[in-house]
Fold each of these.
Amino acid sequence: MIFNPVIIVAIIVQSWVAKASRVAGAIMGFLITTGIFLWGLAVYGSHNQIMFFGIPLSQPVFVILCLVWYVFDTFSLIAALKPVPVAAPPVPGTPAATTDAATQAALPATDSTAPRVDGDTINFGCTECGKPISFKKRHAGLVIRCPECNERVIVPDLS
Ligand SMILES: [Zn+2]
């Protein structure tokens, strides 16, 4: 009984799904792990041996591998469900923003991707797609997801 093709196909399918949606990918991970777990129990139930990259797996080792995989799936799901901080849209016309906005309007447009602080907001350009992003100062140094391209970028720490 060969384990490798099953596990490799499962991982490839999961990575496709995860590309479309991280939550769906994580849930898919649970389903795949459960499927492999049940399949493995059936294999051992019929007194067969599962081979994993040429190494015969004993039933306890197989069960532990599945449990480790469940832990991995759980962490993926938690990571996928973690809310991405949403950039606050600029509020035009507020007294505090007016002077800053006027100052920034005077700056050359070519400087739009250079990180700068505006009140308690850090404005910077996404390193992946170049779109302007605004985050609160307290997010400085954190890895966030660009609201435009969904890539991971680091909020510059200007303090
Ligand atoms: Zn981006």
Amino acid sequence: MDVKIVKVLDKIYTEDKENKYWRVPRTSGQLLRSIALSITAKNILEIGCSVGYSALWLASSGAYVYTIESDKDRADLAEKHFKEAGLNNKIIILRGDALEILSKWNKKVDFVFMDANKNEYADYYKKIYPFIKKGGILIADNVISHKESSKTFLDVVCKDKRVISQLIEIDNGLMFIVKK
Ligand SMILES: C[S@@+](CC[C@H](N)C(=O)[O-])C[C@H]1O[C@@H](n2cnc3c(N)ncnc32)[C@H](O)[C@@H]1O
């Protein structure tokens, strides 16, 4: 991985030890990168950017990353991190409410990473599903740590015959979904 990206990832990690920006654990970041690389993802959508830690892992695969964030300060900090990592041309920050942005979404994506409001996961899923390419992947974070709030989403996914889903029991719990 480019040394500039590694430096920014390390900086975010060490400067935010108490994790007030709710970034994914490093192991989840590594897994996101590996999956993006394995499917040669071209366009990734992230719902929930915060200060850009997971977006940097995703973009380190070489894909374009569209990342949604409603909080101005966190989006500003993410923008700074993307510039420092030399990835500001590969990561596009979409500022605003995820449900509003998804209502107007029209781009096909190979990979979606969901990590915003857990109570809205089922709605994000319904809105983004038509834009996931066949064989594309959706990963939802925190389905173990936020079991109650992600329950509606998990019920929808487990009954959905159009996808194959598998819980990855690492870190905060990642729901791995493949569109058939
Ligand atoms: C868990 S953090 C994301 C962490 C990030 N994925 C990472 O690992 O570095 C969730 C972020 O989603 C944002 N968020 C929550 N609900 C949102 C919504 N409805 N629209 C846009 N952003 C939202 C929050 O402001 C917060 O910064």
Amino acid sequence: MVISLLCSPRITLMIKLTIILLILSSPISAYATTNHPHHPFKSVYAFGDSYTDTGNTRSNTGPSGFMFVSNLPYGATFFHHPTNRYSDGRLVIDFVAQVLSLPFLPPYLDPKADKSSGVNFAVAGSTAIVHSFFVKNNMTINITPQSLQTQLSWFNKFLEGKGCKDSYATPRECEAVFHDALIWVGEIGANDYAYSFGSSVPTKTIQKLAINSVTAFLQCVGIAEKGRKVCGRSRPTTNRVPNVVHVSRSSYRRQRQRRVCRSANKQSDTHNTILKAKLNLFRKQFPQSVIVYADYYNAYLTVIKNAKKYGFKELYKVCCGYGGGTYNFNYFNACGSPSATSCANPSQYINWDGVHLTEAMYKAMADAFVNGTYSQPPFRSLLSKKHSSG
Ligand SMILES: *[C@@H]1O[C@H](CO)[C@@H](O)[C@H](O)[C@H]1NC(C)=O
Ligand SMILES: *[C@@H]1O[C@H](CO)[C@@H](O)[C@H](O)[C@H]1NC(C)=O
């Protein structure tokens, strides 16, 4: 996510969007056939952006503002070497894997990885809206070409490799992939807002298209479970995007910059509210599935408000950066570059590199989702239901 860079001096302007968890078959009946009470799920398939990416991106392929993810001090806290995660250590998805007693999810693009317990399709810089939309509207600065569409096509390839092909004749192979699987749709869409920032495309348009993309994505995955191929192979879901009328850029940009900076929180709030309503429709459409909504936005606000309790001393200053001052952040000397340095105690910081969070913050967020009240329905109740039915 790059949005913060554009809103100086407050560099930690973050769009905080929803995390969605999907359990496609009924968790209770599914559990009855599982032998391991400590493995409520056999596998996890994750999608999202840099907040979820466990290594599909490297220094030379990631967003240009954060080009050093393959260097230390990325990874220094937990792994003690860079793993191409945008943090000093584990991400929310890593803590979730640990809660489920599963190995850390390997990145899809690692051909040698053991993918028997799941795959991570998330890519840093990824958008919800299909890439061609940004190209068409001249929003190609600092942008990775992968979108949720790309991740879906990777999932398709993965399914094909497992024999879950485009045919009703192979439900067994599909069942093998989806049975007792958790689909984790990490935060996605923040980059869409960031990339469109300063362009002539209205925020409302981005909102609509981003939410449509996520909804279409969920629908595709929901349908895939029924033995059909994940849709969206040939036709991008947001194929018919309007070419937005170009208005005078410079004045528009200034105006938008003020507005966007001020209303980032409101924007995430609205986005999440709309998405939540869509999820309710989706629950009706797929009554066999359990859909958990993880409230990233309010979890984040709660941690910030109770920072001391979590051991945080720096709410906004960047741990790994350059230049000191209030934020210790300099775009041209980003974390991992030769001139940037890491703070001594990352666990006292919320912000790792200017946009991404420290392991300590990701743990606090994971705790809010897993143990706290920020998942609806509560994640724990889901797990205990699976346990008791076993
Ligand atoms: C994009 O840029 C090209 C070349 O500068 C211009 O012709 C075109 O009108 C622009 N399109 C939009 C949607 O702004
Ligand atoms: C949830 O709570 C348990 C028990 O207090 C703790 O061991 C675990 O680390 C917590 N999970 C997360 C993700 O923080």
